[in-house]
UniProtKB/TrEMBL annotation:
<feature type="domain" description="Phytase-like">
    <location>
        <begin position="74"/>
        <end position="383"/>
    </location>
</feature>
<feature type="signal peptide">
    <location>
        <begin position="1"/>
        <end position="38"/>
    </location>
</feature>
<keyword id="KW-0732">Signal</keyword>
<dbReference type="Pfam" id="PF13449">
    <property type="entry name" value="Phytase-like"/>
</dbReference>
<dbReference type="InterPro" id="IPR027372">
    <property type="entry name" value="Phytase-like_dom"/>
</dbReference>
<protein>
    <submittedName>
        <fullName>Esterase-like activity of phytase family protein</fullName>
    </submittedName>
</protein>
Length: 399
């Protein structure tokens, strides 16, 4: 959640769409769906996405990484996004280090868990995120396109990666959605709608540190979802302990066209900060379930009198059916629209964990031995000695 005009040399691009799937019909399908509630299958005859259902989640286990863990000469921390490649059984985790400690980067890792336990996380390697010319991204003192990586997704159709950057208002750098090879080399970015551009001087467009925090491939892999952490200036005020707010969900096709935008209703901040201290709440990650439903993480931080933050994390399911497509609305304040529907799946603060840290990453994992989906979350420790890098594994119980 740390808080880029993108050079004109960065281009949007097309990528091949997935193959159409075939839905099982009749008694055989009924038997399979009864035996395995989360079994694979299409939602319709033209959908090759996995069939998933999220009723609730059950915590399998927790692991933490040492704050001084070093891999390839880099400090492992700031882990703001996570995703999984089933073919290689490899996980990808992006750090939100803005090339301040070491060059902007992601890690690969091995995770092992079953229905009873999550084993210690094994960080396998570090990969530098590189610009189109092959150079590492600069930090804020060097100038240029300073990245603020917040989300990462593995794309099985092209065996490449997508990642987001939040931009920097003071530097006049817009948020962006990037695509990279597995070696970290940038291969393109998606166009940014004009309403989302950063202004260093005017209260319009994206707020600093409240932009492209979440990213997900659609369930069929043919489009991308991107979530704003907080509201655009023209969409309304930030959440407070007494009032919620709104953010936006964007859906891009692979050519960079915006297919739709929807309004996401943000909770009020769950508690009041100490006098003179700060608090916030926003969307830190999204994950597609099917063509109409997504999981969202809302994370709030409330600062106490001693300066430390208490973190509140809630997992929601949202449904876009019936919601207004607000692509044509550059300003939500005062406008008429229907937001997405939202259902609480799990309040992480009720799990009995000693600490709920700054959870920012979320990904589907491999199927569990009982055929159900697994879900993995990771926290961003902000390279802060008082925080932890926390990895949580869940069993997904279907509706």
């Amino acid at each position: 959640m740390r808080r880029s005009a993108v050079p004109s040399a960065f281009r949007s691009f097309a990528a091949p769409a997935g193959r159409a799937g075939v839905r099982l019909l009749g008694l055989a399908a009924l038997v399979m769906s009864t035996a395995l509630p989360a079994a694979c299958g299409g939602d319709d005859d033209n959908d090759d996405s996995p069939r998933r259902s999220v009723g609730s989640v059950r915590l399998i286990g927790e692991q933490t990484l040492p704050n001084d863990l070093q891999v390839g000469g880099t400090t492992v921390g700031g882990l703001s996004g996570i995703d999984y490649d089933p073919a290689s059984q490899l996980w990808y985790l992006v750090s939100d280090d803005r090339s301040d400690k070491q060059p902007a980067r992601f890690y690969t890792a091995r995770l092992s868990y079953d229905l009873a336990r999550l084993q210690p996380v094994q960080i396998a390697s570090v990969v530098t995120l590189r610009q189109a010319d092959g150079s590492a991204f600069p930090n804020r003192t060097a100038g240029g396109v300073v990245p603020d990586p917040e989300a990462i997704r593995f794309d099985p159709s092209t065996r490449s990666l997508w990642w987001t950057s939040e931009g920097d208002r003071a530097l006049g750098l817009d948020p962006f959605v990037a695509r990279a090879n597995l070696d970290g080399l940038l291969t393109g970015t998606l166009p940014l709608p004009a309403a989302f551009r950063m202004s260093p001087t005017q209260e319009t467009g994206s707020r600093n540190n409240a932009t492209f925090e979440g990213l997900s491939l659609s369930a069929d892999g043919k489009s991308l979802w991107v979530s704003m952490e907080g509201p655009l200036y023209q969409d309304g005020a930030l959440p407070t302990p007494s009032s919620g707010s709104v953010s936006r969900l964007l859906r891009y096709d692979r050519n960079g066209s915006v297919l739709a935008q929807y309004v996401y209703p943000l909770d009020a901040i769950p508690a009041a900060p100490a006098p003179g201290r700060s608090a916030d709440n926003g969307v830190t990650e999204i994950l597609a379930i099917d063509d109409n439903r997504l999981l969202t993480l809302e994370r709030a931080g409330v600062q106490g009198a001693d300066g430390t933050f208490t973190t509140y994390v809630r997992l929601y399911q949202v449904d876009i059916r019936g919601a207004t497509d607000v692509r044509g609305l550059d300003r939500l304040a005062g406008a008429s629209y229907v937001p997405v529907q939202k259902r609480l799946v799990q309040n992480l603060n009720t799990l009995g964990l000693k600490t709920v840290d700054n959870i920012e990453g979320m990904a589907w994992g491999p199927k569990l031995p009982n055929g159900r989906d697994s879900l993995v979350l990771v926290s961003d420790n902000n390279f802060n000695a008082t925080q932890i890098t926390q990895v949580l594994a869940f069993e997904v119980l279907p509706e």
